[in-house]
């Protein structure tokens, strides 16, 4: 009887491990905080006198929030999303990627949905990348990137302690 219990427990452990990778649980960005990041990014640029668009995507590049300030040109929405997508693809700020991989920049700019420009920043919750924000419309990508970073900063405590 004891041997069958031991064998049963052994099989339970082995079989449990065999199916452990069948379902993967991941963190992703929620709509509420995505909207807050987008709005805070726009307000950060507005304080500097810039009319911009901000787009937040999840870890897979799926659109979560897109906002365009009142006078921002309409194409800034598309550019902001492409900057955010670049972050999803590379895992780092789009401006850093632009500097590190200037050798493949022209090719990447021909891929639908990507643009290699400054202004995209990863969003992390407790160190785990859950999305990205892209900002477009300020005169220069470095200014867009500062606004995107400020948008994330405004909710970073919520991100760090999210369950």
Topology, element by element:
Elements: H1 2-18, H2 31-47, E1 53-58, E2 63-68, H3 75-90, H4 94-100, H5 105-108, E3 120-125, E4 128-136, H6 141-153, H7 156-160
Helix pairs in contact: 2-6
Number of domains: 1
CATH T-level topology: Beta-Lactamase
Q: Give the strand order of the largest sheet, numbering strands 1, 2, ... along the chain.
A: 2-1-4-3
H and E string: HHEEHHHEEHH
Mean pLDDT: 92
What ranges have pLDDT less than 50 throughout 5 or more consecutive residues?
none
- Derived from helix and strand composition plus strand pairing, the structural class reads alpha+beta
Supply the CATH architecture: 2-Layer Sandwich
How many β-strand stretches?
Answer: 4
CATH class: Alpha Beta
Largest sheet: 4 strands, antiparallel
Strand content: 15-25%
Signal peptide: 1-20
Keywords: Signal
Protein name: Heme-binding protein
């Amino acid at each position: 009887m004891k041997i069958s219990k031991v064998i049963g427990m052994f099989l339970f452990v082995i079989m449990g491990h065999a199916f452990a990778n069948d379902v993967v649980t991941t963190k992703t960005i929620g709509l509420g905080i995505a909207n807050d990041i987008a709005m805070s990014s726009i307000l950060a640029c507005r304080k500097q006198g810039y009319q911009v668009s901000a787009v937040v995507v999840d870890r897979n590049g799926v659109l979560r929030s897109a906002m365009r300030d009142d006078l921002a040109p309409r194409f800034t929405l598309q550019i902001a999303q492409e900057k955010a997508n670049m972050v999803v693809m590379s895992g780092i700020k789009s401006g850093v990627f632009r500097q590190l991989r200037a050798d493949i920049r022209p090719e990447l700019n021909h891929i639908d949905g990507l643009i290699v420009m400054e202004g995209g920043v990863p969003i992390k919750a407790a160190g785990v990348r859950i999305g990205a924000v892209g900002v477009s419309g300020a005169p220069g990508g470095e200014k867009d990137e500062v606004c995107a970073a400020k948008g994330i900063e405004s909710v970073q405590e919520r991100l760090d302690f999210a369950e």
